[in-house]
Fold this protein.
Amino acid sequence: MTERPWRPASVPPAAVDLLQFALWRSADLQPEDLLRALALVPAARAEVDQLGPGCCSPPEQRG
């Protein structure tokens, strides 16, 4: 995976990034690799859920 401009090189990819990359490359992956990637869905969902309140709420409701 290429580096993301918003993430320092020392920070590993997020589960969302890994899952997106695996789905993008799914035609080239073995079935067991796809199953491993799908195991990241709960972690990716948790990452997105953490972003929700900060991105989608009015400033007065942010914690």
Remarks:
- Residues 41-56 form the longest helix (16 residues).
- The chain has a mean pLDDT of 84.
- Residues 15-53 form one domain.
